[in-house]
Batch of 3 targets.
Target 1
Amino acid sequence: GAKAQLNGPLEGLAATWTADLKDAEGQAAHIAADALGQVAKSQIKLNHVDANWRGQKATLGQPATFDLADGVAVDRLELKVAGGTLHMAGRLLPKLALSASASGLQLSTLRPFAPQMAAEGSLEAKADLTGTLAAPFGSVRVNGKGLRVAGYSSKLGRAALQLRLRDQLGRRQL
């Protein structure tokens, strides 16, 4: 089940939320979060997130602010997940002006969700986007290190990956 609690005036509305759920395969998922809303400013400050699903944890690295005036913007979103860190800052709506990055993501942490993938290694990524969500423009860079399929002979060398996308991303120019 899930439980939410609101407390305080609209100028500083504190919210807490917890949920203990099960996915389609009966695996338990837990999430707890708390935030502070400022209705007059159309802002939400996410102070804490702690989630656990299939043995994998996700936590908020620092408080993040979401501005809902004139669309959606985020400031300093940092999630600790998959053995690494995701960062995001900028505007998502109505126009896209977003910087996002991922560092130290361990592919082995995906195994509980996609056992057939059985990948090992790590990923780093960086994206600087403009335009709109429907027609993004900008650049995306993905680097993989120590990549291999788990269970294969250790005599097979590990691979590296470098992928760069630029310009209008809807066209997927490499």
Note: The longest strand covers residues 136-149.
Target 2
Amino acid sequence: SETGTALLTVTGAGIVSIGGSTDNTNVSATVNSGTLFLAESSGHKALTGTVTIGTTGTALVRYTGGSNELAGASVILGQFGTLDLNGYSESQIGAITFTGGTITTGAGVLTLGNAASTITTNASSSTALITGNLDLGGTDRTFTIARGSATPDLNISAVLSGNHNITKAGSGIL
């Protein structure tokens, strides 16, 4: 369990795993390349700061221990980054910013569970993608989509739930 301010940087083709049975607080990660497994037991936070994935190389962050590994964390996905919930669910994620990149849930559900749960895309030559299951979290949502050279800029091929409205802001294509 980490309780101070910490930054984990993953670079290279290997696998790094964060696991345990207590919450980590004030822990951020930058995964430049390689794989980071989030293996905290279900309901415990692996990372709570900013998680940057695949801005400089092919990178994967995968849930392997349980749900809500990124409770309160902000996620930045580069064009080479993938966040894979691997069949688990996340209901407490913070802001999500794409410059390309992919979020996939498998059988799990990504729930935009609080006011900080926003989706924004920056201009990119790669389409940002959300697959699996996306729940709007009980409220109307505005997705801010910047126009890049990719068409579309954000592709949501996930099953949507939450019975609320999505408003698209920005000049990008959703």
Note: The radius of gyration is 15 Å.
Target 3
Amino acid sequence: GHEISCHGWRWETHAGMDADTERDIIAAEMEAARATGTALALGLVHLNEAEPIAADGPEAVAAAETALAERIASAVPDSRVERFGELTYGVFFHGPIPDFDAWAMQLRDSLTLAAAPDAPTVSIGIAQSDTGYAEADEVLRDADKRAIYDRYGEQGLRGQPGGGAAGFDFADAI
């Protein structure tokens, strides 16, 4: 059970976080990375056994979230951690690109390989960026551009034909 996939400072909990709040948090992290000239990565950690835990009621979910938050805090104590949804946390990394791989492996190994045998399994997805902060920040803060991106992807923002489902165009596949 564990998986990790990779794509190109403090604790805060936002129960029932809405999309705008999540975007604001990510935009603030992007601004901090831009200001310090560091790379930015976001790891999303999700507890795999969500359905059975949720079926056991709100107390079980709260206990599982507390345990997951403690595991993440122990794994990467200098990273900002945000609750992004039920049994899902976002973990931010700021630092030089060469340090990114070590951070990602520390997060993965601590939550998977070094986990207690009876600890629930997690899925971890990590996105990392070292450029493009200004453009991404502009899209996050501009509702019209965000709507175009959500519908047509980067192609839509550039006024190119195609797009659809997060920028995927079947013509690009053939």
Note: The chain has seven helices and six strands.
